[in-house]
Structures are given as structure tokens and as C-alpha cells.
Design goal:
By secondary structure, the chain is an alpha+beta fold. The strands form two sheets. Strands 5-4-3-6-7 form a five-stranded antiparallel beta sheet. A two-stranded antiparallel ribbon has the order 1-2. It is elongated, with a radius of gyration of 26 Å. This is DUF669 domain-containing protein.
Length: 181
């Protein structure tokens, strides 16, 4: 092992290579499995939406609306595989059965609403399937989340249960128990 605390002529510490430490990956062309981050794996992941902002971007087809999401992904089977997608763009396409339609439908179903408000997405949790998309003739890949399934929050569940119990109490109060119709 090489001493990493060698001082140069002006008394400052120089960091020397130590091939047993992460952060020195690629030194002398050597890469170890431990040098790679344990990001989310392809397949089913739990997610939490950390941030969501309506936005627009310019494309070759003109300006398009998007929702910019910051999403924490955690592998469903091994929580040591995790990562945060800091600028995941969800393209707003209101055509039937598009990825945005699937996402919106899942949000509306768990919220029991007929609208999607991007500002209300923060904190929502669920599962989604992660894969990667690589455009033709490009070296870059993009994460792609599909099959969104949201979980209702504990607070929303408690509010719904309270409302349900109130509705039952009201229905019992409104019932005519006299037996006459």
C-alpha cells in the first residue's frame, strides 16, 4: 500500500494512488466491481417522488410540456441498490394510452380524483418498472419508468376511513326503522 499523505515542496499534501480505495477507479486501466455505484437495477423498484415541477423544453418538434421529477428509486428486492433520478422528464402527451396517460391514470386512481396536479406529486410513493432507452445512433441511454402503481399515504387512508365511518353513521341516522314504507 502506498502512503497517501506525502507532502510536496510547499508543504501541501498530495494524494497518491491507492488502488484499494474507491475514487481511484481506472488508475492504470484497472477497474474493480467495488468502483461502480449500486444504482437502481432494471426491473421493479419502489419509488418516492422528491420533487415535481411543470416545465417545457425545446425539441426538434418544437416546445413541449413536461413534468420534471426528482425520484428516489430503491430496488424492490435489495434496498442497497438505490439512486435518485434528479431530472426525470415525463413528457405531457394527452393522447390515449401514452406513458403520460398511464401515469396520470395511476395518480388519479389512488387520489380518487379526475385531475392531476403536478404540484401535489411530491411525497407520493409506489412501484414502477425501470428500463433504459437508447436512441438509434446514440451512445447515451435514458431511464424509462413504466407500469406506475401508487400507494395511498397513511394520512389519506385515515381521512378516507374517517369519511367512510361518518357516511355509515349518517346512513344509520337517516334510516327509517319503523318498518313502514
Amino acid at each position: 500500500m502506498i502512503n497517501r499523505n506525502i507532502r510536496n515542496n510547499d508543504g501541501m499534501k498530495n494524494m497518491q494512488p491507492n488502488d484499494s480505495k474507491k475514487g481511484m477507479a481506472g488508475q492504470q486501466g484497472i477497474y474493480r466491481l467495488q468502483d461502480f455505484d449500486k444504482g437502481a437495477r432494471e426491473g421493479w423498484n419502489n419509488f418516492t417522488i422528491l420533487d415535481a415541477k411543470p416545465d417545457s423544453i425545446k425539441t426538434v418538434q418544437g416546445e413541449v410540456s413536461v413534468i420534471s421529477l426528482s425520484i428516489e428509486l430503491i430496488d424492490k428486492d435489495d434496498s442497497s441498490y438505490r439512486e435518485v433520478l434528479t431530472n426525470y422528464l415525463l413528457f405531457v402527451d394527452t393522447s390515449y394510452n401514452t406513458p403520460f396517460y398511464q401515469f396520470a391514470l395511476a395518480v388519479m386512481a389512488v387520489r380518487n380524483t379526475d385531475y392531476l396536479d403536478a404540484n401535489e406529486l411530491v411525497g407520493m410513493k409506489g412501484t414502477a418498472n425501470l428500463s433504459y432507452y437508447q436512441p438509434k445512433n446514440k451512445d447515451v441511454t435514458y431511464p424509462k419508468l413504466t407500469s406506475w402503481s401508487f400507494r395511498i399515504s397513511e394520512q389519506e387512508m385515515n381521512e378516507a376511513l374517517d369519511q367512510y365511518l361518518d357516511d355509515i353513521d349518517q346512513a344509520e341516522d337517516d334510516m327509517d326503522w319503523s318498518g313502514e314504507f
